[in-house]
């Protein structure tokens, strides 16, 4: 007998609500068949059967559960498992086709292609583009499809040589780890099934949810963010409860013409997209771009953001770099840039002003005694911030090598989830694009971000004389909830001092 457990829901997600069971107690189920849908305040998750057998449900729909809780059991596996599989779940997402061929190839010559695990805090992704179509021959390890998540793009390869006989999840479908997205025949005998069409919203049943019915965390979030009236949504869940899919379908469907006067609140409801003109083009935002937009706005809405400025004379650093760049590259195999100097200066400043290396957790402050710097990298798909770990222990060469490797991975799209999480402070360099001054937005939950800018020759007064100096403006955006103005200004002064007198790095003063 195998237990059906609530999976890990993500770093910041501690509970979920059981939205719908696709099977009943006593029914026969197959391994990897979707049994239950869980809703969190961020995403919907599907939990599959751990083995063949008979289902026993222990926790009913509408109940709140936490990771590791036993939802039910599967035991007493029998031979006649394929029969129930022909009936699809009513609430299954786009990846569950209505056609029966999903259960036909019991011969063992049909291999399922599944969505891989995409990271601890990534619960779903979107099918981007299939590089093959149904009926095409494929080779083992050949890339079949790219799945976009809110952080990285994940490539899914063929597990064996054969023929791609069925694409279960079409372009644009939302999928979860472990979900079947295609099937490959290794003997070429299976019939080719047409690619699954893009999912349409499920037909709404007659039972409308009323205001006194409890809303799951995911539905509550949609209602609060969009102003959706739950009384206008027909629920497909138990006892007419509204599921996340119901809420999203209601948002995507234009409201019918009403004969009664429209309330003021309804006037602010989302409207259908405007028509584009002949000289316009409508392109759907990628998941990465949607996430960038959402998180930047969340950062503005959450933190008390303020930016302070200073300027640094880059004469000494530039002279040092010009003197040793050839010997440095010959010895270490990497070019000597400015980022390593800035990283060293930032770490020294963070040690002096620990509040800038902290994090707010409710009513507590978490002071971090490690220095993992996020380095913002612009890519064709958008901005990503990979993290360079334990910068305080690295040499200038180690920092330059680490930044170069992360930048290459970012541009190639091969960053992992772990490489994008856990930073304590971020550096962004708009100067490489010619920016003279900016006010960077915090990378939450961090409370500080340093903006570097273009180096410009400007007239400066040095020892009573006007001379041309290579100057750079520095910008520190910080969370005023825990970083005071004095600390922010002092932090920038420490960076200025370190860059104008790099010997401080060597002497640790």
Automatic annotation (TrEMBL):
InterPro entries registered for this protein in UniProt: 2-oxoA_DH_lipoyl-BS, 2-oxoacid_dehydrogenase, 2-oxoacid_DH_actylTfrase, Biotin_lipoyl, CAT-like_dom_sf, E3-bd_dom_sf, PSBD, Single_hybrid_motif
Ranges where the Lipoyl-binding domain occurs: 1-75, 110-185
This protein's UniProt keywords: Acyltransferase, Lipoyl, Transferase, Tricarboxylic acid cycle
Record-level GO cellular component terms: cytosol; oxoglutarate dehydrogenase complex
PROSITE patterns: BIOTINYL_LIPOYL, LIPOYL, PSBD
EC assignment: 2.3.1.61
Reaction(s) catalysed (UniProt annotation): N(6)-[(R)-dihydrolipoyl]-L-lysyl-[protein] + succinyl-CoA = N(6)-[(R)-S(8)-succinyldihydrolipoyl]-L-lysyl-[protein] + CoA
Record pathway: Amino-acid degradation; L-lysine degradation via saccharopine pathway; glutaryl-CoA from L-lysine: step 6/6
Family (UniProt): Belongs to the 2-oxoacid dehydrogenase family.
Record protein name field: Dihydrolipoyllysine-residue succinyltransferase component of 2-oxoglutarate dehydrogenase complex
Organism: Asticcacaulis taihuensis
């Amino acid at each position: 007998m195998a237990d059906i457990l609530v999976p890990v829901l993500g770093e910041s997600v501690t509970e979920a609500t059981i939205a719908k069971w696709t099977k009943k107690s006593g029914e026969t189920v197959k391994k990897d068949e979707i049994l239950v849908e869980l809703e969190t305040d961020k995403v919907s998750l599907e939990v599959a059967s751990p083995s063949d057998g008979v289902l026993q449900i222990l926790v009913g729909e509408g109940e709140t559960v936490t990771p590791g809780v036993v939802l039910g059991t599967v035991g007493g596996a029998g031979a006649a498992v394929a029969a129930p599989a022909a009936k699809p779940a009513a609430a299954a997402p786009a990846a569950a086709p209505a056609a029966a061929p999903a259960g036909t190839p019991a011969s063992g010559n049909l291999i399922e292609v599944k969505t891989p695990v995409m990271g601890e805090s990534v619960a779903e992704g979107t099918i981007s583009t299939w590089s093959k179509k149904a009926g095409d021959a494929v080779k083992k390890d050949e890339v079949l499809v790219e799945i976009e998540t809110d952080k990285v793009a994940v490539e899914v390869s063929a597990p064996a040589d054969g023929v791609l006989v069925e694409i279960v999840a079409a372009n644009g479908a939302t999928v979860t780890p472990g979900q079947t997205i295609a099937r490959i025949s290794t003997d070429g005998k299976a019939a080719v099934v047409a690619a699954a069409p893009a999912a349409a919203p499920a037909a709404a049943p007659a039972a409308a949810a009323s205001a006194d019915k409890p809303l799951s965390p995911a539905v509550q979030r949609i209602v609060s963010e969009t102003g959706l009236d739950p009384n206008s949504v027909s629920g497909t869940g138990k006892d007419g409860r509204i599921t996340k899919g119901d809420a999203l379908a209601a948002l995507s469907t234009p409201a019918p013409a009403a004969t009664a006067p429209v309330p003021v609140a309804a006037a602010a409801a989302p409207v259908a997209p405007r028509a584009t003109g002949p000289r316009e083009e409508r392109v759907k935002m990628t998941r990465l771009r949607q996430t960038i937009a959402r998180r930047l706005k969340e950062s503005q809405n959450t933190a008390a953001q303020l930016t302070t400025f200073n300027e640094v004379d880059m004469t000494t650093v530039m002279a040092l770099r010009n003197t040793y760049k050839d010997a440095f590259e010959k010895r270490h195999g990497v070019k000597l840039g400015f980022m390593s100097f800035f990283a060293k200066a930032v770490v020294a400043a963070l040690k002096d002003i620990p509040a800038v290396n902290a994090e707010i957790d409710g009513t507590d402050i978490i002071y971090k005694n490690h220095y993992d710097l996020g380095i913002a990298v612009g890519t064709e798909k958008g901005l990503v911030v990979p993290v360079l770990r334990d910068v305080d222990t690295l040499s200038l060469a180690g920092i330059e090598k680490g930044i170069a490797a992360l930048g290459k991975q970012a541009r190639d799209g091969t960053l992992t989830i772990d490489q994008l999480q856990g930073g304590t402070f971020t550096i962004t360099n708009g100067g490489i694009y010619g920016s003279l001054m900016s006010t960077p937005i915090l990378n939450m939950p961090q409370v500080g971000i340093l903006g570097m800018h273009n180096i410009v020759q400007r007239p400066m007064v040095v020892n009573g004389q006007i001379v041309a100096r290579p100057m750079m403006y520095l910008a520190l955006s910080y969370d005023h909830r825990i970083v005071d103005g004095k600390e922010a200004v002092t932090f920038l002064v420490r960076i200025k001092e370190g860059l104008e007198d790099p010997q401080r790095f060597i002497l640790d003063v």
